[in-house]
Structure formats: C-alpha cells, structure tokens
Design a protein that fits this description.
With 403 residues, this protein is α+β, with helices and mostly antiparallel strands. Helix content is 60%, strand content 14%. The chain contains 9 helices and 11 strands. Strands 1, 2, 4, 5, 6, 8, 10 and 11 form an 8-stranded antiparallel β-sheet that branches. A 3-stranded antiparallel β-sheet has the order 3-9-7. β4 and β5 form a beta hairpin. The longest helix has 75 residues. The N and C termini lie far apart (77 Å).
Length: 403
C-alpha cells in the first residue's frame, strides 16, 4: 500500500490539474478556430450573393412576362437563366463553406474530448488498482490498515469530481454526435446544390442554342462587325488603345442609330433582332459584378507587376458563370494578347466594360445583352476574373455604382 500511495497521489494531481492539458489542447485548436471564423465570413458573403442573384432573377422574370416584344422576352429569359446559375453557384459555395465549418467544429470537438478523457482515464485506472487490493494484504504489512482507511477517504473525496467530469464527457459525446449529424446533412445539401447547378447549366445551354438558331435565321451584319473588331484588335497597341477605338466606333454607331432611316418598301424583310435592340441608354448604367466570388484587388491598388489596378479582380470558383454586368452591346469578344479571352461591352453614353481572363466566351460581337446575360465561363484552378468599367477611357469606381 505504501508503494501504491505515490501512484495514487500522482493520478489525483493529474485529475486535479487536468485543466493544463485542456488549455494546451485549446491552444492547438486556435488554428481551427481561425479557420471556422474565415469560413463563416465566406458563408455569409456567398449567402448574400445567392439571395441578391435570386432576387434579380425574379425581378427580370417579372419584366420578361410584361415585355411585348418576343426578342426582348428571349433576351430577358436568357439573362434570367444566367442569374439563376449565379445564384446556384453562390448557394453551392455557401453550402461548401458550411461543410468546412462542420468538419472543423468536429475536429475541434475531438480535441476537447481528447483533452478531457486523458486525465480522467488515468485517474480511473489508478482508482481501480487501489480498490482491487486483496484484503489479506492488511495483515502483510504494518500500517496497511490506516493507509487503506486514508486511501478510502481520499477516494470518497475524489468520486464527486469523477462523476462531474464523466457527466461533462457524456454531454460532449452527445454534442459530437450532433455535429456528425449536421455534417452529414450538409453533405447531402452540397449534393443537392450541385445537381441544381447542373440542371441550370443544361437549361442555359439549351436556351442559348435555340436563340443562336433563331438569330441565324433572321440574318444580320454580325459577321462584318466581328471582322472589324478583330481588325481593330490586331492594330491596337495595347488594351487601352483597343477600348478607345471601340468606344469611338460605338459613338459613331449610336449617332447613326439616332438618325431617321429610310422608309422601308412594302414587303421588305426587316432585321427583327436589330429592330428590337434598343440603343443603350446614355445615363450611368446600373451595375453588378459579372461573376460570383470575393474581391481580391480593388481599383487603384498596386498589382503584382507594380502598376495601379484599373478595375477589380475577383477570385471566382472554378468554371463560374460570367454574365453581363449591365445592359449593352458586345463590342469585342475573343482572345487579346496576354489577357486571354476577353469581352468588351458598350453600354452607350461612353460607358464600356472590359472583362478579362475568361476560359470560354459565349457572347458574339453585335449581341445585345441585358444585365445577367451569360457571356462566358471562368477557368479552373482558382480563376481570377478582372473587370474594368470606363467612361470615355477613364477608369470608374465600380463599388460606387454597385452600392
């Protein structure tokens, strides 16, 4: 018994001072806590973006139902699909953030359980060794009886503490099971969001193909306009020069569009697509970001090349849908030097948007687009989409328009 007392006292101290182990484990969980905080911020941002895109899609659906022109309804329907895809993308991003939060909270909970279980297990093991000492040992060593009485008294004093710690562990285990259930439910939600996004993209592809066929049957001068835009891109010294030439071209086109045209002869086939496409407004356009994601770089910030940013850089999800940020007309669509695939949209009144770093482009030169009309997709592996808004060549603050 005398030899067991030091072991018993060490176990007792381990149980009483077990909080130091807990504190050490909590310190190691600070990284998890920081990750949870970041993911919660990402979840809140994605949820806001999903709700905003869905609200814009509903408003566009109402406008489309009230539109009297068939071509205008088709354009609005396509833009509505683009916005619903962005809503589904944001919803999927928010759900994935929830899943990451659930997994991190589970790991955090496991750390807490480990910290609480270890000293309690050591104490229980020591108590079992003491209580299982055979009664015959009382007569084998002088003073054993008093030692046993003393040990029993200490055990009775420790038992309430053991019961309290055991009850706390049961509560923590129940919380662990609840967290596991929440993670599994979130995984199911991720699958449902993924399927919804796939359905929306399929509907978009079908609708876009139908509109392309319909536009081809009407006939237009889009081919000539596209060739002219390509020629301008080849002659442009840089991006600013290309945008300036396209702005000048758009200004001339707007002036011509305002002139009274000749009276059509009886039986003349009119280009319905051109007739239905209103001249873009000369006022400040209502503006939205063209892609769902987090703004990584703002206007005027120093880029990696040491220059001042002329727009925003958005960190998007792989394959994210890119839409027209405002109503307008596609002035350029294609590859331009090191900028990858780009789209330039003429909003009228000297306002133009430039969107770069796209992996695919679905818009064609001459297309009239509404805010939300799909114009392309982002690439894989953490794509960064850059968007610039200019008025007569001068960079404008997009954030001020979005607010």
């Amino acid at each position: 018994m005398m030899r067991l007392r030091p072991l018993f006292l060490m176990a007792f101290l381990a149980a009483m001072l077990g909080q130091s182990t807990v504190r050490a484990t909590v310190a190691s969980g600070d990284v998890l806590a920081g990750r949870i905080a970041n993911e919660r911020a990402d979840y809140a941002r994605a949820a806001r973006q999903a709700a905003a895109a869905e609200a814009r899609a509903e408003a566009l659906s109402t406008r489309a139902a009230a539109a009297g022109d068939a071509a205008e309804r088709d354009r609005m329907a396509l833009a509505e699909l683009g916005l619903r895809i962005q809503s589904a993308e944001a919803e999927l991003e928010a759900t994935r953030a929830r899943l990451t939060i659930a997994r991190a909270m589970e790991q955090q909970q496991q750390l807490r359980l480990t910290a609480q279980q270890r000293p309690l297990l050591e104490l229980v093991a020591s108590l079992q060794m003491l209580t299982r000492r055979p009664p015959l040992t009382l007569f084998a060593q002088p003073g054993a009886t008093s030692d046993l009485v003393h040990s029993r008294a200490m055990i009775e004093a420790i038992l309430p503490h053991v019961r309290s710690r055991t009850a706390a562990l049961r509560s923590e285990l129940a919380r662990t099971r609840a967290l596991r259930g929440a993670r599994q439910a979130t995984m199911a939600a991720v699958q449902a969001s993924t399927e919804r996004l796939a359905q929306q993209r399929t509907a978009l592809a079908r609708s876009a193909a139908q509109q392309r066929v319909h536009a081809a049957t009407l006939g237009s001068s889009a081919g000539l306009e596209s060739d002219r835009a390509i020629a301008l891109a080849q002659d442009a010294e840089d991006m600013s020069d290309l945008v300036a030439q396209l702005e000048a071209s758009g200004a001339v086109r707007d002036q011509l569009a305002r002139l009274a045209g000749p009276v059509a002869r009886p039986g003349t086939v009119i280009d319905q697509r051109t007739e239905s496409a209103a001249v873009p407004r000369a006022v400040r356009p209502a503006y939205r970001l063209p892609v769902i994601g987090a703004v990584e770089q703002g206007l005027g910030e120093v880029t990696g090349e040491g220059a001042r940013a002329r727009g925003l850089t958005i960190l998007a999800a792989p394959g994210a849908q890119i839409v027209a940020p405002a109503d307008g007309r596609i002035a350029y669509s294609g590859v331009f030097r090191s900028y990858g695939r780009i789209v330039i949209i003429d909003h009228g009144g000297g306002w133009t948007s430039l969107i770069t770093n796209m992996i695919t482009v679905s818009a064609r030169v001459g297309d009239v687009v509404d805010q939300g009309t799909p114009i392309g997709r982002a690439g894989p592996r953490r794509p960064r989409i850059a968007v610039e808004l200019r008025r007569r060549g001068q960079p404008m603050d997009i954030a001020a328009l979005i607010s």
